[in-house]
Amino acid sequence: MNKLSFHILEPLRFPLINRLYKNYYPAGKAKKDEDIWVGEDGNSIISCVRFKKIEDIQLLTGMLVIPDYRGKGVGDALLAATTKQIESQPCYCFAFSHLVPLYQRAHFTVIEDTELPHYLASRFKRYSESGKNLVPMIYQKPALGQN
Q: Which Pfam family, just one, is annotated for this protein (predicted)?
């Protein structure tokens, strides 16, 4: 693994993200109105995450680390790199249950689906009813001195 870099995706490279999703996460599809962050190893995109703005909040969605890089801290590093984005307005995510510890390390807290804003609650219900084992979470900025 070379030196990893994390940054917002340049618009010209947008088609690469949907190709990445097609190859590794077919349910994912990037939209041009989302903020898309990528992690790169050299010139190869190895991870991505999208932030969808909905009214006065944002939904962290479509996080992907390609299989060869999983379990090596890339997901943690990508979330750490997006901290300013995450803290720019209230941030929720629907984590696959096996990924809850990853998001907890990034200061997301499990919440009840009844605590979701109404415009996210209906989306969460639809996803859950389609058979996805998801856990609603919200970002909680750590207190000073904690990381």
A: Acetyltransf_7
Exposed, middle or buried, 55 (CB in 10 Å: 0-12/13-18/19+)?
A: exposed
Gyration radius of the chain's alpha carbons: 15
Is residue 20 within 8 A of residue 4, CB to CB? The reply is no
Domain membership flag for residue 30? yes
β strands within the chain, DSSP E: 4-8, 35-41, 44-54, 57-65, 91-96, 108-110, 134-139
Could you report the per-residue pLDDT of 23-78, keeping only the tens digit for each? 999 988 999 999 999 999 988 999 999 999 999 999 999 999 999 999 999 999 99
We report the CATH number of the domain holding residue 14 as 3.40.630.30
